[in-house]
Input
Amino acid sequence: MPTCPKPGTSLNQVYAKRMMRRASLPLLALVLCGQAIAQTIQPAQPTKVRVRGHPGIELHYIEQGQGEPLILLHGGQGDYRSWEPQMKVLSARFRVISYSRRYHYPNNNPFTTNYHSAYTEADDLAAFIRKLGLGRVHLVGTSIGAFTALALAVKHPEMVRSLVLAEPPVHQWVRDTPSGEAAYQEFMTTVWRPATEAFKTGDDEAAMRFLVDGFTGKGSFDKLAPGSRAVAIQNSRFFKANALSSDPFPKLSKEKVKRLRIPVLIITGENTIRIHKLVNEELARLLPRAERATIPKAGHFSPRENPQAFNEVVLRFFLNQRAVN
Output
């Protein structure tokens, strides 16, 4: 028997709540199904394309599903394989594409300049979107992948439908506050500069140890499973290019970010380091209409550390957007 609404509750509110409850059941089933599939199916073999002239930059990617294009942008330690727990879930609603950025496995692009940053990656991404003829896309990024997505949206807003940003390292944003500058200097002193020095001496493993430990806690690198450690080393070339860049953490215009008029979801790992929390706070201040979510029992690598919770909030975000539109 249906219950009467509480006083002060409109019929529209009641209807919306009932629709959300109904939508949440297939949503949860989809998430759980996707998690199970991801544990049993190996990633597909990637396709290679070249962008940005001749011979250009080679980028490997995989794709799955149909519908509006959604591109997944991995973090510094990952590659196209990093999004396996998300591919199986999101591809039920979208044409999902996961690609390896310029210096990540299995790409074989030489170092061609002494400057590399999220802006370089954003230009690669724009060329990749044009190469595949994707038009406007949804972007889901983590870490430097999130910075890349945000940089693309600022430079080419006509290319982007929506943004999901998990801790973009726009570190320069927090330096004009005492607590932010302290967090920035701590990160540079204990993580970034030691890693840079290790790269300069050719000790890539030591550099990655500084980086992994800096993001997830001291001793984390040595606790990695052999396969995970091998993946981190495989993708160390990005960090080397970024660390040796003349401007590894460039500024991003706050005024241009404020002008974004697309749906945005800001994701924070519950246990992430302080500088990433501060950057996300500034991003939320610049985009007050953006949705926010915290992933429990996860740090900077929330899509991998707690994929089920990550998938749930991302799917809910897209479900809400479709309900509005």
Q: What stands out?
A: Residues 154 and 259 are 8 Å apart (CA to CA). Confidence is low (pLDDT under 50) at residues 1-41.
